[in-house]
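User: Modeling request: complex.
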Amino acid sequence: MNIDDWKSQIKRGTLEFCILLMIKQRPSYGYEIISTLEEYPILAAKENTINPLLRRLLKEEYISSSWQESVKGLPPRKYYSVTDKGLEYISAMSGEWNNLLNAINKIKGE
Amino acid sequence: MEKALNEYLEKIEKYLKPLVASERVDIVKEIKSEMLELQGKGVSPTQIIERLGNPKDLAKAYLGEAIASSNGFNWHRLSTVIAFYSLAGIGGMFVLPFTSICGIAFMLSGVFSPIAGIIKFAAHLLGYEIGFTIGAYSANAIVFLPISILMGVALFMIGWLLWKLTIIIIKVMSKGKKKLAQ
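Assistant: Request completed. Predicted assembly structure:
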């Protein structure tokens, strides 16, 4: 049984959705996003996955970023927040996600 | 900041050379910010570097995303690919330049062929015959025009397919390197 391979495919497909949902709650910076994801083994991913993903979302204008220069004792942080286009994208994804869950439940016969 | 961390950032900067300066600076600044964040939590420089992984792989993850995320052909993207692989040097070094350069050469030939046909046709109308002979065969200008256009389309298609292949190879490579943490 190779559950890991399947899990990483699920992760590949859902990370973008999860990150957008997280940034929608409140603007966050890269390390914060990565450490929140680390709390959930199925979503845990490293910098080399998350950082390029954030850049792509930026380029596609689903999110925007701004540098918050040093507050006392803290390093400068790059905060990401969701754009209007991003909000539309999230609601479309949420719809599809519900479709998927409904379909799985029906197929299971529950 | 620790020497080892600075060296790490310098390496990232070097491998990101193919990107425009502003983007490169921003990426390095963001990684540096995370290093400081971790240091503030008492994580040692060795652990930080271990966490971030091989600088070449991290840089490649950024470039892979930049290259694979958009479709279609553009010169900037092409130069990014070639520049990165000449810096990082890996297995695909021979395949990629071949498919990408042949792809472009074919596409260009595809563009030039009908142009040549049009020039020959225009010259014919003006009373000149521009030579185009294969052995004893010399196409006349009126026949040559559609032939040159068909040839151009065929050449362009071959070039386009090779270019697509280049993109697929890059996608597979960057996927392989991403290795989502379990």
